């Protein structure tokens, strides 16, 4: 078979292939285009949703009825950044008001909806509630979990962890926490507290 015959043979084979599979190829192209359009639409939808939620959060923060407005944002925009922020603000507000049932309710929602993002923060509030209720063993365990899994939150919880350790008789761990806080923190007030705690335990 000479070169011309070979080219003709392969051209015919190629034409036969396209004749046979043209619909399938076109269907695949259409599906890929459709997926691209759909993905663009989904991204646009979520971007629009985030924007609307952010605007509502700004309105809520400037509203004279702050708490009801934040409650509305939290319910209406559960899966957005604005919904997350409003839920965190509310959980802190209810914690400060010593409404621990409402705080726990919000923390459970936050933990379920945003498990990786803010689990450390959820544990922190749960530890604080446990402290307020005199459940020092539970508080100690939660602070330890934060210390082990969220090193970036260490500066926030080292003094708390030390205090909880003291309360349950783990004096050596308490000393280590206070010393670590003294070495790591840049805050002069926190340094002073850590120094005082270390002196009291020696």
TrEMBL record:
Keywords: Membrane, Transmembrane, Transmembrane helix
Positions of the Ancillary SecYEG translocon subunit/Cell division coordinator CpoB TPR domain: 16-202
Protein name: Ancillary SecYEG translocon subunit/Cell division coordinator CpoB TPR domain-containing protein
Pfam families, sorted: TPR_21
Protein's UniProt keywords contain Membrane: yes
InterPro entries for the chain: SecYEG/CpoB_TPR, TPR-like_helical_dom_sf, TPR_rpt
SMART domains found in the cross-reference section: TPR
Annotated TM spans: 20-42
